[in-house]
UniProtKB/TrEMBL annotation:
Keyword Nucleus carried by entry: no
Full protein name: Dipeptide epimerase
CDD domains linked to this entry: L-Ala-DL-Glu_epimerase
Co-factor requirement: Mg(2+)
PROSITE patterns to which the protein is assigned, alphabetical: MR_MLE_2 (PS00909)
Swiss-Prot/TrEMBL keywords: Isomerase, Magnesium, Metal-binding
Length: 357
């Protein structure tokens, strides 16, 4: 069951802002190279103006120096600088970043859609979304346990595998045996060395691995410039906003766009457009969260070669309105979840606001 705690409630001159922390239990332990979790700790921001409520969800990430407390502090700074709702757009950008900015930006955009009657796709001149293939994620375990976990994905078109640098080939071979026709993304989360990459690249390619995410630590990836392998390399931790793109040229083929890194959809659109111009392929990724966090990111799917928005499959309980994902096929979301222009949208957001305000 999702548990909620009110952390912030601010009354501006003509708006209210409410921020709550929610603990969303996961279906099973989720392990990556730098740790494990049994729940997603998310921040939900709600902004109320002219009787309407917009909402957004983010995940403060310790890898980037974020905590629940620091995120709430940044949200408070924005809401105290913006005395009126019309000041929000500029203030969000000036006084926040990362997870705080993401929750604020997405709540603001959701509310603007209702106020203006204009869809967010129109606001950003985005193409219409279609059904896509999303990766489905396996977390780190023993080769035997990872093979067992891969059984339900036997016919999945795309599987993402979290791997540290222990038994890389043994684990991928075990998984490939269970899903021989799938393509794989391997996510190392900065845990490999250049030697690890050189030694395993050919064998991974033979096991249908088509992409490796962030094999080397950020700031130590210069060695990738002289590496030539048959698998595309994706920048994750090394790519946050558009300003990072020049430093990635010649080292990476793909950039992973996550709204918690860009600070929301507004900067993510800029990053996606500039990345395309500079010749990068795009992956749309996520932290572990609910369908509410996936919805704004999904609007970027027409830009992307790879989609990794399977957060809703990892949680025990999702939003009242959620994504439909079947064997990796992810349908466009209902605007009753987020971004709808009707006053009747966001039933859950209105319920949460009424409950905690």
């Amino acid at each position: 069951m999702i548990s909620s705690t009110k952390l912030l409630h601010i009354h501006g001159d003509d708006f209210e802002l409410l921020a709550i922390q929610q603990s969303i239990p996961l279906k099973q332990v989720f392990r990556i190279a730098r740790g494990a979790k049994t729940s997603a700790q998310v921040i939900v921001v709600m902004i109320k103006y002219q009787g309407l409520v917009g909402w957004g969800e983010s995940v403060p990430y310790q890898r980037y120096g974020e905590t629940i407390e620091s995120t709430i502090s940044a949200i408070k700074a924005v809401s105290t600088h913006a005395k009126r709702f019309t000041e929000f757009a500029d203030t969000i950008k000036a006084h926040s970043q990362g997870a705080a900015q993401n929750a604020l930006d997405c709540a603001y955009l959701d509310l603007q859609a209702k106020l203006t009657g204009k869809a967010i796709e129109v606001r950003f001149n985005l193409s219409k979304t279609q059904t896509v293939i999303t990766a489905q994620t396996l977390s780190i375990d023993t080769p035997e346990a990872m093979a067992e976990a891969a059984k339900p994905f036997a016919e999945a078109p795309l599987i993402k595998v979290k791997l540290d640098n222990i038994d890389i080939i043994e684990k991928m071979t075990a998984i490939h045996t269970m899903a021989p026709h799938s393509q794989f993304i391997v996510d190392a989360n900065e845990a490999w060395s250049i030697e690890d990459l050189r030694q395993c690249a050919d064998e991974l390619a033979a096991l249908n691995v088509v992409l490796i995410e962030q094999p080397l630590p950020t700031g130590k990836d210069e060695a990738l410039a002289s590496l030539h392998i048959d698998i595309a390399l994706c920048a994750d931790e090394s790519c946050h906003t558009a300003k990072d793109l020049p430093s990635l040229l010649g080292k990476y083929d793909v950039v992973n766009i996550k709204l918690d890194k860009t600070g929301g959809l507004t900067e993510a659109v800029t990053l996606a457009a500039q990345a395309k111009v500079m010749g990068f392929d795009i992956m749309i990724g996520c932290m572990v969260g609910s369908s509410l966090a996936m919805a704004p990111a999904f609007l970027l799917s027409p830009f992307a070669k790879y989609i990794d928005l399977d957060g809703p499959l990892l949680v025990k309980e999702d939003r009242l309105v959620s994504f439909d994902i079947d064997n990796g096929l992810m349908q466009p979301f209902s605007k009753q979840l987020w971004g709808g222009v009707s006053h009747e949208c966001n039933i859950e957001a209105n319920q949460l606001f009424a409950l905690y305000s």
